[in-house]
Each structure stands twice: as structure tokens, then as C-alpha cells.
Amino acid sequence: MATQVEVLSITSDLFGPPMTIHPVLIWDEAGATLVDAGFPGQFEQLKASVEQAGVAFSRLRRLIVTHQDWDHIGTIPQIKSALGGAIEICAHGDEKPYLEGQLPYIKMTPERAASRLAALPERLRPGAAKALAAIPIFSVDRLLADGETLPWHGGIQIIHTPGHTPGHICLLLPAHRLLIAGDQLRIEDGRLVGPAAEHTPDMQAARHSLQKLLDLPADRIACYHGGVYSSGIPARLAELAAGR
């Protein structure tokens, strides 16, 4: 069985206007890998999306976390429980102390949570508060390093792209000419853009990280926010790296 890749689509209206996120599922005869895991409360949606792609949820062998934000880690405890703990959680070493609770999540402080709740319509606050209270901490089983090539699915290259968070990573699947960008790249109104400034504590580092994405052998980019981008990638990445 050749390696297959599916960019999933999961929609939530937790904070008002619907928001669609795009975890990535990669699989072959040896099992499946999931990249990122959605908001707290989205486990059933995520599980259904995996199975709609034609992969039994029990075939998940590992989960790669691109970074610590809550919309990327929210269902991990439920995933581990559903699989009896038999899944390997992988993340960059710079994310480990946050994911394991040794340091507080950078963008999910009590102050930021309170501010976000206060900005919501009253009808949305109970559900949002429940989700914010469910942001997990969990053990990281495998630490990932910049430039490492993981041995699964024909090879998965790790690209450390700090700025949005200290240990943010992108993943390159050379055999599929696919770059999985996490939040380092997004699609807005059909246009490829960089990380959102309001959610990126170190924009200077994030802009510098764009340099590492130039000249990669990728015909498609999977953006967690926006989906798949495939038009004029080299030229657009060069523009972004130049600040345009």
C-alpha cells in the first residue's frame, strides 16, 4: 500500500463565526500518523473525519504536534484514551516543557482567557469557558529536532520554524511534494500569508523562519488555517520572506 495523505477539515463555532481547521492524516500499510489534533471538545469530529478518509481510528500510531496552541492539542487526552495509550506523541524539544506543564502555555494565560471570554456574546461564553478549562497537558514521547527525517511514510522532514511559538515546526513530505505548515503559513482570501501577528509573540523570529521554507521541493502547502495552497509557491514564499 502506497502512502496516502488527506488534509482533513473540521469546523467549530465555539467563538462565534465558524472556524475550520485542517489536521493532516498520513497512512500506509504500517499504520497512520496524525498531524495536530483540534480544539478541546472536537474529538468526535476528529475521529469521524479520520474514518471518513478511510482509516480506522485504531490504526493511528503517532501524533505529531506542530506547536502548543490549544486548537492543535485539544483532543490529545481523548485520543490517548480511545487508543488505550498506544500512540506516540511527538513534538519539538522547545515545546516539551509547555506541553508537559512545566511552563504555562504562552498564549493561554488566565488573563488572555478571561479577555477572550469577555469579548464573546453571552450565549457563547459557557461553551467557550468549558473548552478553555479543558486545555490539556500531556507527556511527549519523542522529541523532534530541526533537520531530522522521521522514518515513516517514505520520510518526514522536520523544519524548526520558531516565532509563532518557540518550538513550532513545519513538516516536509518529499515523496508527496507537500509542506505541512502548521500556523507558520495561512491562507486568507485565497492568498498565502505568514503567521497572524496578534498570535505570534516573536514576529521577527517568525519572519526569519520563513527563510527556511524557500526552495523546498513542495508543490502544495497544507495550512492549518486555510487548507491547501498550490499556486506559485516559490514566488509567494520569496515575497513573504522579503516582508511583502
Structure description:
It is built from 8 helices and 16 strands. By secondary structure, it is of the alpha/beta class. The strands form 4 sheets. A 6-stranded mixed β-sheet has the order 1-4-5-6-7-8, with no helix packed on it. Helix 1 links the parallel strand 5 (31-35) and strand 6 (60-64). The longest helix is centred in the N-terminal third of the chain and has 10 residues, at 43-52. It is globular, with a radius of gyration of 17 Å.
Mean pLDDT: 94
Report the helical percentage.
10-25%
Overall 3D shape: globular
Order of secondary-structure elements = EEEEEHEHHEHHHEEEEEEEHEEH
Q: How is this fold's topology laid out?
A:
Blueprint: E1 4-7, E2 10-12, E3 19-21, E4 24-28, E5 31-35, H1 43-52, E6 60-64, H2 70-73, H3 76-82, E7 88-92, H4 96-99, H5 110-118, H6 125-133, E8 142-144, E9 149-150, E10 156-160, E11 169-173, E12 178-182, E13 186-188, E14 191-193, H7 203-210, E15 220-223, E16 227-229, H8 233-241
A few lines on this structure:
The chain contains eight helices and 16 strands. By secondary structure, the protein is of the alpha/beta class.
